[in-house]
TrEMBL record, chains A, B:
This is LacI family DNA-binding transcriptional regulator. PANTHER family: HTH-TYPE TRANSCRIPTIONAL REGULATOR GALS, LACI-RELATED TRANSCRIPTIONAL REPRESSOR. Residues 10-64 form the HTH lacI-type domain. It comes from the Bacteria. InterPro entries: HTH_LacI, Lambda_DNA-bd_dom_sf, Peripla_BP/Lac1_sug-bd_dom, Peripla_BP_I. Keywords: DNA-binding, Transcription, Transcription regulation. CDD domains: HTH_LacI, PBP1_LacI_sugar_binding-like.
Length: 338, 338
């Protein structure tokens, strides 16, 4: 369709002309301002309806210096079920506040996170929920000082004070290891992400604390860090099982590592116990038993979003940290037959 | 922090005052317009840097009537891995076009889909990708006539002509059934969503076409429609296995039904063959063998997004339908040991 043929989107001026009133009057009616005579308001509304005028929400809110009714969410990777569940939760709560959500992926890259933060500021989002990739968030200070609200999710920020919502990582890992120790395990292989990452660092600390309390010396042959995907986890498990005095149990630091461990343990028909941080939907159909350290992912997203809307609403209280509790759950397909 | 204490975000006027130039000059420098003396431009840039001025992207683009550098994505449910993979793909491509993505969930509700469509129009997104929940999209016509670009994904629209990107549903289902027939199966249970839904309708048509060609009469005791979640699928499989002359194989119409079927078949130690539409990440760890009808989900998202950006870029060609091919893949944990 040729550009000249396309109907032009009606403007406030068009409505004013059609209604026989001034553009200022149209504007006041659209914005529900008081002081417009009822019959004029009716004329305006009739013209609006007839012309199919749809107020440009963005333009109006920016002209009046109001909120954009958008919030931003910076996460690692939308294709990861942990993050997509969080995004879904955040979007649903935002909708109840008539707010839209823009989700961006930082891919664990601090530079990308910073660029996206600044881009979201440029588009004047009302606030942001951030799963930090970087370890220094002082770059956010100028925007925070000018009114940008932020809540950090899953990992706290560094270099600034802000609200955060995190999982009880260390305590959860600790409780899981205590459970393995109760079953008599002494050699426990640990497969985890880089300690540069807060969640991995905390979980490793929980593991080490439980082992230390049980008098089990730290053996770095039983610890593989920097594991970021299932294949690396499978490889780590294989190496440890092929080593001297192999572990009789494994702790995997997140669901990606758990999956790799299941692959390798199943392939070898291994009896080793498996304890993994993070529940996941198909854990109930995994081909061998495992224990997961579970928590309510939706609650993580919900707590962060509600906090953000409190801030957007004008809450200026001191930054808070909300901790989401964990619990142990048995998983694996053998449970279907018991 | 008290509102009065908060630094006001610097405006073009502030920059002009700091640089000793007119606001018009500042505007021209910010917008990279030609004709500004180099030394004046330097003064402006120095003031911008010093004041921490960040151009309000949204306000600028709307004032000039330009694009908002945002696109919308309407899907069923962000927590479903099929949709989150698509959202991740769309967001990544959008980023290469310096565009942000707003994702909204319609929850298969046509009214909600319509409301969200109109809300996205109100915020002047440059275009939208829509997985339709409804069966009548004539409501979009006024907006399309005024320039809104749309690409439909996974299901075509009704009541309007628009680009669409769909999976080769009927052919994929057909090929899967032909494969089961080759293995000697004659009684095949079908577990599928409502035929009101395009993908379910097409897949069922493919199944029926393959059975008809093999001379197998349609037996509606072997077809359960309206199945929307794993538990319903498990129940459907159980009912059919408990019936007279039970099926020796099952076809499940999507990954949610496949999961329910796996649960039930595993629980009963059933030898029945399982053919499911949709691959999924943990299909490789499922506790019993299955065949999946697979396709490239990212390609689905990619094709739709690229088409949308062609439209945003001014392409006015006749609407196209892109069909994503399928192929059969063996899954299940037994493959790890073969």
């Amino acid at each position: 369709m040729d550009k000249q043929d396309r109907p032009r989107r009606p403007t406030i001026s068009d409505v004013a002309a059609a209604a026989g009133v001034s553009p200022k009057t149209v504007s006041r009616v659209i914005n529900n301002e008081p002081g417009v005579r009822a019959e004029l308001a009716d004329q305006v509304l009739a013209a609006v309806s007839k012309l199919g005028f749809r107020r440009n929400t963005m333009a109006s809110s920016l002209r009046s210096g109001g909120q954009t009714a958008t919030i931003g969410l910076i996460i690692e990777d939308l294709a990861n079920p942990f993050y997509s569940t969080i995004a879904a939760t955040v979007a649903n709560i935002a909708r109840t506040h008539d707010t839209h959500l823009i989700t961006v992926s930082s891919e664990e890259n601090p530079e990308l996170e910073q660029r996206q933060f600044l881009q979201l500021c440029q588009r004047r989002v009302d606030g942001m929920i951030i799963v930090p990739a970087g370890s220094d968030h002082s770059y956010t200070r100028p925007e925070v000082e000018m009114g940008m609200r932020m809540v950090f999710l899953d990992r706290p920020p560094s270099g600034i004070l802000a609200d955060s919502v995190v999982i009880d990582n260390a305590a959860g890992a600790r409780a899981g290891i205590v459970d393995l120790l109760k079953d008599g395990h002494r050699r426990i292989g640990v497969v985890i992400d880089s300690p540069v990452i807060y969640t991995a660092r905390e979980r490793l600390a929980g593991v080490r604390s439980a082992l230390a309390e049980a008098g089990i010396p730290y053996d770095d042959a039983l610890v593989r860090v920097g594991v970021t995907n299932p294949d690396e986890a499978a490889h780590a498990v294989a190496t440890m099982l092929d080593g001297v005095d192999p572990p009789t149990a494994f702790f995997t630091g997140n669901n990606r590592s758990t999956i790799g461990a299941i692959q390798e343990l199943y392939r070898r028909d291994s009896d080793a116990a498996l304890l993994g941080f993070d529940d996941f939907e198909l854990a109930t159909l995994m081909p061998r038993p495992l224990t997961v350290i579970a928590y309510d992912v939706q609650e993580l997203g919900r707590a962060a979003t509600l906090r953000l809307f409190e801030r957007i609403g004008g809450d200026t209280s001191w930054p808070s940290e909300t901790v989401i509790p964990t619990h142990l759950v048995q998983r694996g397909v053998q449970l279907l037959k018991s």
